[in-house]
């Protein structure tokens, strides 16, 4: 039997050496990426130190006045504003989002499902600044006309919460839909086989089994809302005041992100105001981090135990209560208890918010009517057969879904209808003229494309190599786990924090100034964790059998990774990376203190020059240049088209991958 | 790697092997020869260690964390586990077919050229020749000759498994280890794989793990019966099936077991 010469000896040997070389190289790359990530903590923390020492942690957090002009930095109004706006957003996003998720997973036909899922993702694709622009031009005037006595300006907590609620929708929908969809179909079959209707199965079996995933979705939605900058800052009024009374949704407020973004341009580097803003960022990171940790704990616990029907009531607390006999008493009369508590809450809420608009008598009347209607609605089930209830429930869910789609259509439609006519060749290829009121936006388009291109070149190789290292080469040890934790922390970090990091590290310390390269690095650090995680996850879905098949033929680890595993995972890697880049392209907060200028008379000559960018240009026009409405719509439209087309490419890749590969 | 002749030569020799996964011992003092140009079958109930034994012959168990082996395992008289053995080269010479067909998500052609390419073959015509000859040996060529560029995932389960066999042949191994290769296939596809194994015996050496006793008796020359990590009995297939020397073997073969 003769064998090709290459199969004996030397060829395989060099293969082995190349293998350890690649392993070493990947280790170095992953180390670099992690180092870059850790630098953020160092710079944010380091700059916050002055304020922490000078003001004191308690005085900072509980100080009731935030007045930089007087040098008073009490963050309580800012933190309160953040919490209130987020809570309001959740009151909107949770019912709508979970309703949509149930509809998509349990009610919709497979065809509707395939259509609805990507549609919901479009929500996530709209840049924050475009939401803010829509809020400023449509939502705020609408609210001002609807509540003329309560709203002097229209900018308010209410406006911020509505906008943020819409922005948190895609997170809530996709995470809870995943959780609901992951419930084994054997559960559904078992329930249906006993004669339960589909709706009963949904309510009694599927949703309880998915409850931990749904709670995680809610919490992740909170995390997304807290960290949002541009949209909130454009519609809340940025006034550091605590609403009076506390539930006055018409009050002007500010958020941590909004305060940082609006005050950064005025600061002197190194003074107390500067440091206070970093301390605010640290508080924000702490809030987001704890929210995300809670979500991850829930998900992890759900992962290692069987789904339970008790939901939130299980665990040690449940057992302790059970010992006292309380739970038994409660659960025997669960229906009544729920009804009484729910009615009381509803009535209180109507009284509270009603008093803002009208007198107490009218509020009390409206409250009673609503409570009666709600009770009648919920007892309807007894009178009707389970089929009627099901039709009613499915109908309501479809209504919720329709409402959400309608919102999307209104936002997209408004911007496209008003923006498309502005797109002339002069607009697309001309320079900015008349302070932004006429001319074109060519430099901003080029600047945005330059920023994307640089980020691709830096972040993709680093991120993919690090992901490969984590998935294929690193063992499961403390170092790897630490790296993963660090990446996860950065993954949920609000984009404004990256902007602060870029400013303090790149613009000031590294003395790069406002420059394209500072923007590249800032955006790269921002997308790096996403690319790393996506790569790792995509590689994780490649079946072990493929690796074994390759290794069984004598391929080295690197050959196997490079030729079998990576190509098989490439669809997933590219989809995730393009989505991350699309988001980066629409981001304003990370570039507004690092790379972007409002006006530039010429293109960037070198990477050390600042650039114009579409998101920042839109923000600038919308907030600083009255009389540039047409230009604003045009800019928003171009930005939207660029970002959405990137999303479209990502979806196309995913669609093709899913079709081609069935494990 | 000298080519010695003689039909009874032991190619892979396993002697007194003990194997642990972490603290759990999976193989106890197992010995077994695999002879040139023969089919050696391993039978026994689930979890008896037959797949473990097979996978340790080309050190696929190296990929399992916490796996530890003691004893002697020789390939042409050389210790398989000695530090100067290149494990990748070892696996090119001792190939493997898995329980579930696992074609790569590539075209049919690329699945087969994968092995030769990683070992440095770049010439197009040579690759084409390898594709054709391997597919012919795996009795798949006539079914797929017109769609070599199409995705391997579009093939039926039986075709996929034959493609995996063709792929294993592409690096010209001496020994082919088959780990329950037909357990995921229907009877017709199974019988084609069995015919194929009988054909392959002329050029290659085959060791096969099977759940199916009839399969072992139909195709193998030697059979080993394993139980609870031990080799209860090993011998010529006819002998073992018609006249087992151990009572436990007889009880297993006649279905009076457990």
List the helices and strands and how they pair.
The complex is a heterodimer of chains A (663) and B (258).
Chain A: H1 10-55, H2 57-62, E1 66-67, E2 72-73, H3 76-107, H4 110-125, H5 128-146, H6 157-181, H7 185-193, H8 198-209, H9 211-227, H10 230-235, H11 256-263, H12 272-304, H13 316-323, H14 326-332, H15 334-357, H16 360-383, H17 386-419, H18 425-429, E3 432-433, E4 438-439, H19 442-473, H20 478-491, H21 495-509, H22 516-540, H23 544-552, H24 557-586, H25 589-592, H26 614-624, H27 629-660
Antiparallel strand pairs in A: 1-2, 3-4
Helix pairs in contact in A: 1-12, 1-19, 1-21, 3-6, 3-9, 3-17, 4-6, 5-6, 5-26, 6-9, 7-8, 9-12, 11-12, 15-16, 17-27, 19-22, 19-24, 20-22, 21-22, 22-24, 23-24, 24-27, 26-27
Chain B: E1 10-21, E2 24-35, E3 39-43, H1 50-57, E4 67-75, E5 78-79, H2 87-93, E6 94-97, H3 108-118, H4 124-137, H5 141-144, H6 157-169, E7 175-179, H7 187-200, E8 205-209, H8 213-219, E9 222-227, E10 230-236, H9 237-242, H10 247-253
Looking at this protein, list some descriptive labels.
heterodimer; A: 663 residues; mainly alpha; MetI-like fold; 3 domains; two-stranded antiparallel ribbon; 27 helices; globular; disordered N terminus; B: 258 residues; alpha/beta; Rossmann fold; six-stranded mixed beta sheet; four-stranded antiparallel beta sheet; 35% helix
Task: Describe what this molecule looks like in 3D.
The complex is a heterodimer of chains A (663) and B (258). Chain A is mainly alpha-helical and 663 residues long. Chain A has 3 domains: 45-307, MetI-like fold (Orthogonal Bundle), CATH 1.10.3720; 333-377; 440-658, Orthogonal Bundle (MetI-like fold). In chain A, 76% of the residues lie in helices and 1% in strands. Chain A is built from 27 helices and 4 strands. Chain A has a two-stranded antiparallel sheet with strand order 1-2. A two-stranded antiparallel ribbon of chain A has the order 3-4. In chain A, a hairpin with a 4-residue loop joins strand 1 (66-67) and strand 2. Chain B has helices spanning 50-57, 87-93, 108-118, 124-137, 141-144, 157-169, 187-200, 213-219, 237-242, 247-253; strands at 10-21, 24-35, 39-43, 67-75, 78-79, 94-97, 175-179, 205-209, 222-227, 230-236. In chain B, the strands form 2 sheets. Chain B has a 6-stranded mixed sheet, sandwiched between helices. In chain B, strands 2-1-4-5 form a 4-stranded antiparallel sheet, covered by helices on one side. Chain B is globular, with a radius of gyration of 18 Å.
């Amino acid at each position: 039997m003769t064998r090709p010469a290459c199969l004996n000896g030397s060829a395989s040997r060099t293969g082995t050496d190349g293998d350890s070389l690649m392993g070493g190289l990947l280790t170095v790359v992953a180390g670099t990426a992690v180092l870059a990530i850790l630098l953020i903590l160092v710079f944010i923390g380091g700059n916050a130190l002055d304020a922490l020492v000078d003001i004191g942690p308690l005085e900072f957090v509980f100080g009731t006045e935030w007045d930089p002009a007087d040098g008073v930095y009490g963050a309580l109004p800012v933190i309160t504003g953040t919490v209130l706006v987020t809570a309001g957003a959740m009151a909107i996003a949770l019912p709508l989002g979970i309703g949509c998720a149930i509809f998509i997973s349990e009610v919709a036909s497979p065809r509707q499902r395939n259509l609805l899922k990507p549609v919901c993702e479009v929500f996530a694709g709209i840049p924050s600044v475009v939401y803010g622009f829509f809020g400023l031009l449509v939502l705020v005037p609408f609210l001002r006309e609807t509540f003329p006595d309560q709203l002097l300006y229209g900018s308010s907590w209410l406006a911020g919460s509505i906008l943020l609620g819409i922005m948190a929708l895609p997170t809530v929908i996709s995470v809870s839909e995943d959780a609901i969809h992951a419930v084994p179909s054997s559960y559904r079959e078992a329930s249906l086989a006993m004669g339960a209707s589909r709706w009963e199965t949904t309510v009694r079996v599927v949703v309880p089994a998915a409850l931990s995933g749904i709670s995680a979705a809610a919490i992740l939605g909170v995390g997304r809302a807290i960290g949002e900058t541009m949209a909130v800052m454009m519609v809340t009024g940025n006034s550091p005041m605590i609403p009076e009374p506390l539930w006055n949704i018409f009050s002007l407020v500010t958020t941590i992100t909004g305060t940082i973004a609006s005050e950064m341009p005025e600061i002197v580097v190194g003074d107390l105001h500067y440091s206070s803003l970093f301390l605010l960022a640290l508080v924000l990171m702490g809030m987001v981090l704890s929210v995300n940790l809670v979500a991850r704990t829930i998900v992890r616990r759900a992962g290692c135990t069987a789904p339970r029907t008790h939901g939130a009531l299980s665990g040690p607390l449940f057992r302790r209560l059970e010992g006292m006999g309380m739970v038994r008493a409660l659960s025997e009369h669960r229906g009544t208890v729920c009804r009484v508590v729910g009615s009381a809450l509803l009535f209180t809420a109507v009284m509270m918010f009603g008093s803002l608009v009208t007198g107490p008598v009218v509020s009390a009347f409206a409250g009673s009517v609503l409570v009666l209607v709600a009770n009648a609605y919920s007892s309807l089930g007894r009178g009707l057969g389970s089929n009627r209830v099901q039709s009613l429930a499915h109908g309501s869910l479809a209504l919720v879904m329709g409402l959400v789609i309608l919102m999307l259509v209104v936002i997209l439609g408004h911007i496209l209808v008003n923006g498309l006519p502005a797109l002339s060749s002069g607009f697309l290829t001309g320079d900015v003229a008349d302070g932004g009121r006429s001319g074109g936006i060519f430099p901003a388009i080029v600047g945005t494309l330059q920023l994307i291109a640089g980020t691709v070149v830096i972040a993709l190789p680093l991120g993919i190599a690090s992901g490969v290292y984590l998935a294929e080469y690193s063992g499961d040890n403390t170092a790897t786990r630490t790296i993963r934790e660090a990446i996860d922390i950065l993954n949920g970090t609000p984009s404004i924090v990256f902007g602060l990091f870029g400013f303090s590290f790149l613009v000031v310390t590294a003395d790069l100034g406002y420059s394209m390269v500072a923007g590249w690095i800032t955006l790269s650090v921002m997308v790096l964790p996403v690319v790393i995680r996506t790569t790792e996850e995509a590689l994780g879905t490649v079946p072990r059998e493929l690796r074994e098949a390759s290794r069984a033929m004598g391929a080295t680890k690197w050959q196997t990774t490079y030729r079998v595993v990576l190509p098989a995972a490439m669809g997933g890697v590219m989809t995730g990376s393009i989505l991350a880049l699309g988001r980066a392209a629409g981001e304003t907060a990370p570039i507004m203190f690092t790379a972007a200028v409002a006006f530039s008379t010429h293109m960037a000559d070198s990477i050390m020059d600042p650039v114009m960018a579409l998101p920042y240009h839109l923000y600038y026009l919308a907030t600083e240049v009255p009389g540039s409405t047409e230009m604003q719509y045009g800019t928003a439209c171009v930005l939207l088209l660029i970002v959405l087309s990137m999303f479209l490419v990502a979806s196309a890749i995913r669609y093709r991958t899913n079709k081609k590969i069935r494990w | 790697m000298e080519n010695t002749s003689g039909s009874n030569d032991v190619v892979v020799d396993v002697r007194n092997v003990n194997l642990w996964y972490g603290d759990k011992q999976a193989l106890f003092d197992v010995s077994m020869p695999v002879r040139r140009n023969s089919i050696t079958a391993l039978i026994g109930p689930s979890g008896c260690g037959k797949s473990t034994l097979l996978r340790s012959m080309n050190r696929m168990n190296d990929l399992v964390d916490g796996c530890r082996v003691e004893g002697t395992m020789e390939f042409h008289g050389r210790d398989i586990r000695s530090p100067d053995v290149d494990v990748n080269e070892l696996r090119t010479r001792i190939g493997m077919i898995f329980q579930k067909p696992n074609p790569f998500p590539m075209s049919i052609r690329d699945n087969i050229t994968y092995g030769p390419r990683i070992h440095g073959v770049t010439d197009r015509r040579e690759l084409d020749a390898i594709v054709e000859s391997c597919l012919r040996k795996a009795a798949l060529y006539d079914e797929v000759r017109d769609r070599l560029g199409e995705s391997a995932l579009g093939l039926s389960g039986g075709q996929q498994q034959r493609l995996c066999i063709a792929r294993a042949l592409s690096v010209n191994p001496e020994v082919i280890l088959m780990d329950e290769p037909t357990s995921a296939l229907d009877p017709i596809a199974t019988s084609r794989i069995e015919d194929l194994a009988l054909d392959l015996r002329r050029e290659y050496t085959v060791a096969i793990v099977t759940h199916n006793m009839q399969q072992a008796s139909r195709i193998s020359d030697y059979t080993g019966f394993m139980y609870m990590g031990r080799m209860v009995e090993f011998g010529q297939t006819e002998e073992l099936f018609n006249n087992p020397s151990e009572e436990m073997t007889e009880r297993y073969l006649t279905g009076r077991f457990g």
